[in-house]
Amino acid sequence: MAKSKVVTLEQAMEKCFDGMTVLLPGFVNCGVSETLIEGLMEKGVKDLNIISNNTSIKGQGIGRLVHDNRIKHITCSHIGNNTETVEKVVAGEINITFVPQGSLCEKTRAGGAGIGGILTPTGVGTPMQEGKQLLEWDEAEGKYKFVSPEDPVKGKRFILELPLHGDVCFIHAWKADKMGNVVYHHTARNFNEPFATAADWVICEAEEIVEIGELEPDMINTPGALVDMVVQARKVEG
Known about the structure:
- By secondary structure, the protein is α/β, with parallel strands linked by helices.
- It is built from 6 helices and 12 strands.
- Strands 1, 2, 3, 4, 9, 10, 11 and 12 form an 8-stranded mixed β-sheet that branches. The protein has a 4-stranded antiparallel β-sheet with strand order 5-8-6-7, with helices on one face.
- Strand 9 and strand 10 form a beta hairpin.
- It starts with 8 loop residues before the first helix and ends in a 6-residue tail after the last strand.
């Protein structure tokens, strides 16, 4: 019988430390690991580098880390749902790197797959290309060439987006078995699945933990091979 990966919240937090890069999937507050974020709050972890689509809403999810000044830098697609994040970014209290949503998924997928990056036309000719390598397809020679933004445009251009990878990833499951096989619930799946591939250590909080063998194999979204710990999710109040 496989060894159970179920641990207490306190045991899971032993993998968390000041200054770590943590992947926090979720869309606004759907599929967000509220229990594991609570664990970070209780442990007092600070100076976090967050990779997420957004920062939830004020007072919930990642918004709690924002409010309590636990975040040093965030890589995300938007922050408009949380006015407190906007205020702290404008005040210089949080550093931010914006990444288009599709590019964020692909950069994370690249980090999980161990590849060197992706080529995307998204952001070409906008501030999104600043400080990044730009490539252009040379039809005559049948290959890509590195170009400068000031060079005359002769073909389709792409930005080289580098991979994203974290020390720890928190995922939220509808169900997980004791081996760490995970099933997400409808739209709560969102970024949980790709993000779970792109961290050194993956911790799952599950609404329901079942015995090994209870999940139908075809239902499993993230296999247990990618998950290191499983924690029972607490009921979210309010």
